[in-house]
Amino acid sequence: MTPPNQAVDSGGTLPICEDRTMWRRVLGSVVSRTTYRRWTYLILGGALLVPYALFGAVLLPSVVPQAASPPAAFVIGGTAALVVLVATSFLPAVRVLEGTAVRELLADPVPDATFGGTTSWAVRARSSVLFVGHVLVGGVVSLASLLLPSVLALSLTAPFTGKFPLGGEGGISVPRGWPGAWLPAVSLLATLSLFGIVNGAGALLTRAAKSLLSLPVAERIAQLKRRADRLAQRNRLARELHDSVGHALSVVSLQAGAARRMLRTDPAGAQQALLAVEDRARAALADLDSVLGLLREDEAASRSPSAGLEELPALVSATRLAGVAVDCEVDGDLAAVAPVVSRESYRILQECLTNVLRHAGKVPVSVRVRAGESELELIVRNPMGAGSVTRSGGGSGLRGIAERVELLGGHSRAGRDGDDWEVVVRLPGGGRGTGA
């Protein structure tokens, strides 16, 4: 049985898959969008070559008479144009232009690279090599792009007229009819080969761009570190917003509902609830302003201290105003806790109380804080409300607590303990100098 990629003639089996592959490549280059993007990139290089060519062929001979004679004009003019080309390739604007062309027309082979001014001469030299190569190769391809289609167009009439209108006065004589058909056939093949040349040159320059413009290992590691730092900062700000504003909104929601119900029957109670709403809304605005200041890199806002364990009485008082009975017990000197641990511990307790309001309702809560010499322990315990839902994986609040604890090198546990829900957090207490 003959394989499908082989043909049979009288002499036996003759493989033709290689011929088909060659034609597929040629025709594929003709219809490929990548070919025309690379062609545009190369034509751009040819256009950039024009000023340098004019400098070497026109301007220089007018200033240096020795460069006017044909042999010297080619050597001296070409050398001078190349020197100017290399010199200008170090300009920051040229680096931006080349980087933009690579990014837009060569499928962005170096997405992590940055273009523009740089203090590294190694980076400038690599960019210079790519630009010079782009301009020179682009000049050759641009010249071929002008000549080959023109030759093809002129050759089409040669079998009919017997003249090919190139090569001197009167042109070149060719046989009429089919004997002269070889000329347009060769011109057509040469024009089709131009597509393959463009694809090959574009692929070569793409690999060169990837090699020359890619970031050094040290700079890439530094860039990844900066990204990781920004991501960590964003996560921290997200936790701050979730814990502070989320707690305030939970209190405001409960107190607003209570005020609405008591407005006619208990005006004094409604007034107290509205005062709690006002207080929590004001605190939420202050927290929001602080976080937005960090996002805007507002130095004044970033220097403003965040709430710590010393503000725990105010947090407990606000929760009690929401109608929740809180039994708070503190053992140890909270002022001696390291600032970073104090801030994160306050947010953890705030999130625990918010979760009680959201998921258990107005049930009694016990808060235990023990500040030892080497460890800070936080325990929040409350009965499970009638509408409570036990979540094995935890919500975003519990994930935020776990992230804070992990960053500080501590341990946490949250889950059901009998009929109660309990959160236990243990953090390294540290000293005053361990945080910022």
TrEMBL record:
GO molecular function, one term: ATP binding
Protein's recorded name: histidine kinase
UniProt source species: Saccharomonospora amisosensis
Keyword match Hydrolase: no
EC number(s) on file: 2.7.13.3
Catalytic function, reaction form: ATP + protein L-histidine = ADP + protein N-phospho-L-histidine
A GO cellular-component term linked to this record: membrane
Transmembrane segments: 39-60, 72-94, 129-161, 181-205
InterPro entries for the chain: HATPase_C_sf, Sensor_HK_TwoCompSys, Sig_transdc_His_kin_sub3_dim/P
Domain of life: Bacteria
Group of enzyme by EC: transferase
Residue ranges occupied by any Signal transduction histidine kinase subgroup 3 dimerisation and phosphoacceptor domain in the UniProt entry: 234-299
